[in-house]
Amino acid sequence: MSKKGTEMSINVLVGIILGMIMLSAAIFLFFKMMDNSNDTQAKLDDQTRLKMVEALDSGEPIYVPSSNIVASKNSAIVWIGIRNIESESLKFRIDVTALTPTDFDMSRVAYIGRDDANYNKVIAAKDNDFVNIAINTKGLNQKISLLVTVTQINSTNQKSQYWKPKIITIQP
């Protein structure tokens, strides 16, 4: 066997081993970054929720952390906090309507973690609830303005607007 043939086969073997090590390291780093991004998202959600609790505890019955949202990955998430400032448990309903464009398809709006099409929930007296609303922005090339109205329904089924409506603008 020639010396050149042995060197070449050893070099190929070393190259394959180094390639496998580099591939393993790249896969490890990819999954580590994915775990870190999930942890960061969870921390941001916790921070948002904490800010909302502080705002609601300071006396504001409806709190939206940001009225201008930039969509990412073809969707936007809107957080809404509601505090029942009354002395009795009340049912609340959230309605989202499009201001601009007026032909915006409202089936693109979903209440995360809710089975019904709209948010309808009883909130105990002096208690808070937090709602995530997802908006599908895929294919949109203009900003969207949405009006968020909260309605309270008392024990006799009388409906009334709860506090001031909020306007949210979403940039695709």
Give an account of the 3D structure:
With 172 residues, this protein is an alpha+beta fold. 32% of the residues lie in helices and 35% in strands. The longest helix has 55 residues, at 3-57. The protein is elongated and about 95 Å long.
Question: How is this structure best summarized?
Answer:
With 172 residues, this protein is an alpha+beta fold. The chain has 1 helix and 10 strands. It has one helix at residues 3-57, and strands at residues 62-63, 68-70, 75-83, 90-100, 109-111, 119-123, 128-136, 144-153, 159-161, 166-171.
List keywords for this structure.
single chain; about 170 residues; alpha+beta; Immunoglobulin-like; 2 domains; 4-stranded antiparallel sheet; about 30% helix; elongated
What's the topology here?
Layout: H1 3-57, E1 62-63, E2 68-70, E3 75-83, E4 90-100, E5 109-111, E6 119-123, E7 128-136, E8 144-153, E9 159-161, E10 166-171
Parallel strand pairs: 2-10
Antiparallel strand pairs: 1-3, 3-7, 4-6, 4-8, 5-7, 8-9, 8-10
